[in-house]
Amino acid sequence: MVTLVTPAGSFGGPVRVAVNQSRALIERGHDVTVVAGTSGYRHPPTEQDGVPVRLFPARQAVPKTGFAGLTSPAMIRWFVSHRKNFDVVHVHLARDLVTMPMARLASVLGLGLVVQTHGMIDATDKLLARPLDAFFTRPILRRATAGLYLTEREHGDLVSVAGQQDSRLHWLTNGVPETAVDAAQRTTPPEVLFLARLQSRKRPLMFVAMARELLEQGMRARFTLVGPDEGEGAAVRGAIEASGHADSISWEGAASPDETLARMRRASVYVLPSVDEPYPMSVLEAMSVGLPVVVTDSCGLAPAISRSGSGIVVDHSHSALVDAVRRLTTDGEARADFGARAHDTIGKEFGMSAVATKLEQVYRDACTLRDD
């Protein structure tokens, strides 16, 4: 269960995680359905990447609150009437009015409840979070049969929000399917790709500024942003126009989730200048197709990237980003070496087989705890 599925993939990583996990479990013989709110489709799909999906209209119940204010009454009605069809409910939990009511309901109905929070449930003093945490988040975390976290920081946040230590919290990495590398699809001159939501934390404007400086230094490369507008679109468009390099810097708009890997295969380098990015699926997907990656040192994947030599980790400064991208675009041998190690790292550390095995154990334990 996940908050929102849209044609542009606007909810980002949690949807990709849910679909990847579900496909891996289906391949092992399990019966899995992804349930989510939806908007933007004329005719909502019934499957995504081979995974059955059941989508329900999502509406904005609380204005000007983004995803947090979404709700889906039709989903709740459907779940109540179909609850006996499921052994375990795995909720990709966020502070919103789609997943929170569903998780609370699953717990009240006595179903095995597994919650996975993707860094979205953090310790916060925000005014709107207080009543939500009191009524939904804290009871859900305390009553869930298992909770899944990515980083030690996220583990600490979950303990803090729940208000108690919990042995039912389990570490689970994000995984991506292994895929073939096809360097022949890559373009000349090299293309540097930003594929993410155009949101301030992702720092798309820094990507444009980096591209402008490198082009003004005479670099032959293309710089492309792909992703839906989440507040930075107008500023990005203006920065591209003001750069004087609109022929080499472009924003293509959003790509649907099933187009992501194909789009990445055409690029040469993947760059995500985000600050405090928990565990970005887009970086793992880029690595899976053999792209060297550039991330900041506050990214949850930075240690793995540094350790494996899958790319370059930089501080938050503009100059560090420029230097890293310059190296990867001008040194073809280094680019190929980083990319090969990125692809190998996915198979060794982030493959879906290990993720599916861990989920099967968590689900078995959830069913046992439910029945006790």
Mean pLDDT: 92
The count of strands amounts to 16
CATH superfamily of the largest domain: Glycogen Phosphorylase B
Provide the low-confidence segments as ranges. none
Largest sheet: 6 strands, parallel
State which percent range the strand residues make up.
15-25%
CATH class of the largest domain: Alpha Beta
CATH architecture of the largest domain: 3-Layer(aba) Sandwich
Give the number of domains: 2
What do we call the CATH topology of the largest domain? Rossmann fold
Can you write the helix and strand succession as a string?
EHEEEEEHEHEHEHEEHEHEHEHEHEHHH
Question: What's this entry about, in short?
Answer:
Helices cover 42% and strands 17% of the residues.
Describe the structure.
The chain is an alpha/beta fold. It has 13 helices and 16 strands. The strands form four sheets. A six-stranded parallel β-sheet has the order 13-12-11-14-15-16, with helices on both faces. A four-stranded mixed β-sheet has the order 1-2-4-3. Strands 7-8-9-10 form a four-stranded parallel β-sheet. The protein starts with a strand and ends with a helix.
List the helices and strands and how they pair.
Blueprint: E1 2-5, H1 13-27, E2 34-38, E3 47-48, E4 51-57, E5 59-60, E6 70-71, H2 73-82, E7 88-92, H3 99-108, E8 112-116, H4 129-143, E9 146-149, H5 152-162, E10 169-171, E11 191-195, H6 204-216, E12 222-226, H7 233-243, E13 249-251, H8 260-265, E14 269-272, H9 281-288, E15 293-296, H10 302-308, E16 311-314, H11 318-330, H12 332-349, H13 352-371
Parallel strand pairs: 1-2, 2-4, 7-8, 8-9, 9-10, 11-12, 11-14, 12-13, 14-15, 15-16
Antiparallel strand pairs: 3-4, 5-6
Domain Glycosyl transferase family: 185-342
GO molecular function: glycosyltransferase activity
InterPro entries: Glyco_trans_1 (IPR001296), Glyco_trans_4-like_N (IPR028098)
